[in-house]
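Lay summary. Proteins are chains of building blocks that fold into shapes, and those shapes determine what they do. In this project we predict the shape from the chain. Here is one chain we studied, written as its sequence of building blocks.
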Amino acid sequence: MAGMTSYDHDLPVPGESPSIVYDPNHVPDSVKSFVVHMYRHIREKNVYEIHQMYENSFQSISDRLFKDSPWPSVDAVAPYVDNDHVFCLLYREMWFRHLYARLSPTPKQRIDSWDNYCSLFQVVLHGVVNMQLPNQWLWDMVDEFVYQFQSFCQYRAKMKNKTEQEIALLRQYDQAWNVYGVLNFLQALVEKSMIIQILEQEKEGLEQFTATDGYDYSGGSNVLKVLGYFSMIGLLRVHCLLGDYHTGLKCLVPIDISQQGVYTSVIGSHITTIYHYGFANLMLRRYVEAIREFNKILVYIFKTKQYHQKSPQYEQILKKNEQMYALLAISLSLCPQVKLVDETVNSQLREKYGEKMLRMQRYDDEAFALYDELFSYACPKFITPAPPSYEEPLVNYNQDAYRLQLKLFLYEVKQQQLLSGVRTYLKVYSTISLGKLATYMEVDEPTLRTILMTYKHKTHSVDSDGKITSNADIDFYIDDDMIHVFESKPAKRNGDYFMRQIVKLEGVMTDIDRIKLEFVRKCTRLKSSSSILFCPCRRASAELNDLSHVHSASTNTSFQSHRSRALVTL
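And here is the predicted shape, written in a compact code that computers can read:
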């Protein structure tokens, strides 16, 4: 505690101005102090101090000394931490993350980062790791691991302008960032941590994983368990990047996203989970589930984003917020379940995409262009994990996966074109004959039956439990050539109304307290004056006393008057 000022200050230190020429072996005093204190706090399992240094000090030093250059090399700082192997792996993980965020990594640095993650995860999986790290850091490890895999796949797929040296390097290290290696590491962390069994036992009251946010207060380590927990979210993200949405959602089944959990303890983890969960449900036509989860996370961001303005993740939070509004606009255009959306979110949505959503209902060329635009803006950066064929003419194929997913999505949108007409007529009638509806739609009855079956198919989906669920706000059944229409009515959510009124009341009470405090301060400044004419506090108190006496007297007079009238009546 006493040494915090030595590594967590923002004032320039003499002789520590950023150098134009980067020297990997030069270690400024701030960095020396940082690694020494970080190493000590990790050995002492002081999670609070580790978190403060990781979140604040690392960013502060980076902004001040390493805005356009990497941190000192691990070999340069190793002597200050007793050449501790695990700490050096953690330091390199932060070193590469800073490099990816501030600079453009070289091909060799991409491969070196893969080697470092392999070494770090091997230690966690097969070694003895007796330390506690903040959930934020552990989440960032998994998140960055998946991000760098995605970045490497995009880099490798741009073959057209590759130099001979780069191609030779890719040939030599063909196993670096291999998709099977990435999936195997994440799955191994899930299995080795036994996190699925822990979460099952927690439902029976035998574990306290969520209640302690994954930390071990008995002196053990939280690293493997929490890495295993976040790896399930990492698997969801990787499978979404590959276009395998069903497998991705299956990986997330052990986490109950309808409840608070360890994933909600880190804002980045919370947003990433719901973004990919919602997108996967959207692509599997589970529109109601996608709308429900997008609505919840957007309400949460709306209420809490002000508390993350100083966070380095703030820009990413705002970007994902905008992307999820675009995905919500798509979901509601394909499945008009506006009743599932909170008033606050609906207001923001109308402001951002109200006009576009009206045009998307028409299903013409302009509507398809809008679906294309919103999908391209909000979708993940899909990847092609297979390595290129170096013998063929070198071409860029980094957009192939995106084009395939866009093609499948727009094909689904096109199939909804006929359904919009059916839904329009079904909203008008409670019962209508097949012949009459066929006449309105200008088709014969067999074709109409096909269209109605398509409507049933497209408005129903299979959930993660294998049950068939309906996404339609208008449904029907056919009995003796008569179509009977009924509208699904979701249960009223009175709680939302009362919560909004409670928030408004709290705002009014806060304003009253503020005005009262300002009034008391004003009276305190005038307290030296003894005259009631110059003291608003005393004057107000006297006026209140006078009013109370008048009110008391009038009340007594009124009571006596009523009593007299009652006696006269008797």
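What the prediction tells us: The chain is about 65% helix and 5% strand.
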